[in-house]
Structure formats: structure tokens, C-alpha cells
Amino acid sequence: MLGLTLQETRFYQEAKAEGREEILKLTVPLLLKTGMTIEQIAQQLNVDLETVVTILSN
User: What does residue 42 show for φ and ψ, rounded to 5 degrees?
Assistant: First the structure.
């Protein structure tokens, strides 16, 4: 298969990114309800602050 592993395929990378996005959409609001600040959430989930704000605004 052209010398690619499954993890190197575009399909796998896109599916992984979509899965991570869905997990963030579920996790961010829950963490906010526990009293964490958006800065703390971004730091703990290893994403930028803009990502957290975007998720919360949708």
C-alpha cells in the first residue's frame, strides 16, 4: 500500500481530528460546570484559548 501505515493516511488523520473535536465539544462545557476557568480548561486539554472560546460559543 504505497509504503504508508494506516496512521499516515489522510482518512485516519481526518477521522482522528474529528474524534478529538467531538470529545472537546463534550468535555469543555462539563469542565466549565465544575468551576474551571476557560484558561484552566485550555491548559489541561492542551488546546489554545481560542478553541475553548469557540466551543463554548457554539
Answer: -60, -45
In whole angstroms, give the CA distance from residue 26 to residue 46.
Answer: 15
Cell numbers linked to 54: 469557540
User: In 10 A of CB 1, how many CB atoms?
Assistant: 7
Sketch the domain layout of the chain as residue ranges.
Answer: 18-57
pTM: 0.80
Its sign, for the CA torsion 16, 22, 26, 28, is positive
Per-residue pLDDT for 1 more than 70?
no
At residue 55, the 3 state secondary structure works out as helix
Distance between CA 43 and CA 13 in Å, rounded?
Answer: 23
